[in-house]
Amino acid sequence: MGNLNKNDYERMIKTAREMRIRGLRMAHAAGKTGAHLGGGLSCMEILVVLYTGILRVNPEDAENPDRDRFFISKAHGVLAYYTALEKRGYLSDDDLESFERDEGTLAGHPVRDLSRGIEYSGGSLGMAFSVGIGQALAAKHDGRPSHIYVLLGDGECDEGANWEAFLSAPNWKLNNLTVIIDANQLQYDGPTANVMNLSPLADKLRAFNWEVLEVDGHNVRELYEALSTPDSEKPRVIIAHTVKGKGVSFMEGVKEWHHSVLNDKNYEAALREFEVTP
Fold first, then answer.
1. Which residue from 112, 125, 237, 248 could staple onto 156, CB 3.0 to 4.6 Å apart?
2. What is the pTM for the complete model shown?
């Protein structure tokens, strides 16, 4: 298990803060189109740890066949995804400025572009997990060192295709596969416990023969330690307990911020919580 040193810990905390602020600016600039704020803010620390501490990727060699691969199955988490890609050097500030604009490079859901570090075109839920399994199988077959990471939402776990994937990966002994569940307890229609109760999720996944770890999804140290744990004989799933809308008090745990328009008043109020001005 990896240990996060003090400098890296402080850097990740600072980076997550910067990404939240940048994500708010992107959402506000999107205007009446709106943006997926809740689920983007909930997975910031997950993306920070992956892109600044775990993933073996290089924007100067973006198509290296031995690279790790990350698939964001909860594709509405782009405010975290795009800002993490910018921090890693795949995207420019101009790219972020183009978010959801006509003829811009970044849409409301990611579109596959390896030169920008985007491995998968998202939008329809419940599909990227199976793509990740295919990639993990291919890496095993070809003898490549690539590790495959997939980010699911807990609401997305309602999709039956994901449970077929949960059944398949252990069958093929894909210990080069790690799934992270952003367990923020809310989805578009309300609390996940009311829409489709997953409890006891960890027990179910262990019964499917996964190695299961549970962490505070906003604690970069816990995330780093879980993600850097040496591979076992099983595929690994990390249940990251998070808060939807994390970092902005009036968005936290409020389902209406799953996707919403960030008007001037709310934008200024959100930035004040980070002690910055528009």
1. 125
2. 0.97
